[in-house]
Design a protein that fits this description.
Order of helices and strands: HEEEEEEEEE
Distance between the termini: 60 Å
CATH topology: Immunoglobulin-like
Strand content: 35-45%
CATH class: Mainly Beta
Amino acid sequence: MPKRAPSVFMWAQAVDLLDRVEKMQRQMFRPSTSTGSGRPAWEPPVDLFETADEYRILVALPGVSADQLDVLLEDRTLIVTGERSFPLEDAGSTLIHRLELPYGRFERRIELPPGPLTIGARELTDGCLMLVLHKG
């Protein structure tokens, strides 16, 4: 294996790390046109955990308040919809230097395993919505 200068190696490692972070950013807040309403929306990332009695679903919704979202359980599909408002009143006169967080309408459809489910706890804390679905 040929020797490389430490500065070249460190730069290559930094570029590789930035590339992986960018891919994660695109994966986390991806746009979607396959929503149930057919309207364009972005999809927030989710984590899904299962215990013997329930499912716990964590939805990342930075900057979204509880009155900006709706949760619906249809058959085996959990649907989380809402809108993340743009933080500036007069965006027309604002020079935007970077815009990485998605704004506007969001919708996330999560297919769940078969069986009767009911929505239990629903808590929005620190930019994350925690939903508890009770089995049976």
